[in-house]
Design goal:
Layout (H helix, E strand, L loop, with lengths): L2 H14 L2 H12 L2 E2 H5 L6 H13 L3 E6 L2 E6 L2 H31 L3
Antiparallel strand pairs: 1-3, 2-3
Length: 111
């Protein structure tokens, strides 16, 4: 894995580590929406919302466009495929290890 890929994964996992940001992404998965609407259910200041949005943007999980004076947010799902690929590698690794353990235990049953 290239160093930039690792850095990107770190940013994605960091962004996903916060419940507020995960909820924001869930809402954006339904549809794109203006910042004010995205921020509605969260009891926090505008600067705090802005910080969360910047983290999501830096991780590439969200994009913002401007229509007049309104900032519209939309989900960008491509970084999540990087996470899925990373997880798939470890899923194969652990499946192989557990299959080997199962074979070992099965062979020991008769002893």
């Amino acid at each position: 894995m290239v160093n930039n890929d690792i850095k990107q994964l770190d940013q994605i996992f960091s962004a996903l580590s916060d419940a507020t940001r995960r909820e924001m992404l869930s809402r954006l998965a339904e549809r794109e929406m203006p910042v004010w609407e995205l921020a509605e259910p969260f009891n926090m200041s505008k600067p705090a919302i802005t910080k969360h949005l910047k983290v999501l943007e830096s991780a590439g999980l969200m994009k913002r466009s401007v229509q007049g004076r309104t900032h519209i947010c939309r989900l960008t799902s491509s970084p999540l495929s990087e996470v899925a690929d990373w997880l798939a590698f470890y899923e194969k690794f652990w499946s192989k290890k557990l299959d080997g353990l199962d074979e070992f235990l099965t062979s020991r049953k008769g002893e």
